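The instructor's notes for this session suggest beginning with a concrete chain rather than abstract definitions. Hand out the sequence below and ask the class to guess, before any prediction is shown, which regions might be ordered.
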Amino acid sequence: MHIRSLKQALIENLIDLISIKSGLMISESKAFDFLSEIPSGWWEGDKKEIIRIEVGEFEDAFIHLMYKVGAIQNKENLTDVVINYVKNNCQQLSLDPTNVMEVYKTVNDLRIHLLENTLQNKTFPEKFLQLPHLEILIRDFKDRYIMHNEMPDSVNWNGIIPLNTLFEEEIIPDGSSPNCYFDQRYIDYLNRQIEDIGKIHWRQFEYLTGEFFQRNGYVVEVTSGRGDGGIDVIAKKENPISGPEMILVQCKKYSDRNPVEVEAVRAFWATINDKGATKGIVATTSRLTSGAKDYCQAKLYRLDSVEHSKIKDWIESMKS
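After discussion, reveal the predicted structure:
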């Protein structure tokens, strides 16, 4: 099957579909940055040109972008998703994995039912309903199917949020749940594009930190960010054994070339003592100098640091 269209229109359709499926609105320049990783493609050259391409070429670009923004876990296409699922469930399907024709027939049958479920909401035959993790297969199929241009029914989004807000603005996106500081779509994006962590807006880094502590059972307050004595996040939790816990976090959104100096850590330590906190944490997208690390270690359990690699672990723990 082929698509014949004005190149610019096809590019716009691709980006619109990414927005709908992932919930993230990306710019054309960002899309092209990601697509540049693919060998020469249909999107290059004169945008006013009428082109004729295979549907598979459009799908390849779509799946690549979905993967790059963190909306899907791998780059498997529709066929590969179904094939791998059947291969992993040959025993449950009473299939001989060495019988290629039998496996192919089942793959084709399952694909047809996935299409009918996606487009017409038809139920699956009993032999498929009994399979493990069928709901994950359905979601993976819908996420990759370009003719299904609707938001995933497994998420609770309040609209599509712009990716550039993560880098340029200090507001919590309107699409976020009222009970969260940092949208799940941004977490999934950063989990895939961790090198961008040092580029996000400093306020968004504070929200990310607040989100991590909130998901770990703390009552969180992200402060105003200015004139707060170096306190960016306050995290409180009742501990039945040791008593009330109050953690103060200072967030340093720095580039890799700009480490946190010992003077900043020393000043924050004074704030920790002044507020009577049980613990203080310096969280940075960069790293601490050796002197700053030594200072933290000298304060035993009341002063700690979270550097770039640990921030990466935070994001990994919160991904979809």
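Then share the key points. The two ends are 34 Å apart (CA to CA). The longest strand covers residues 243-252.
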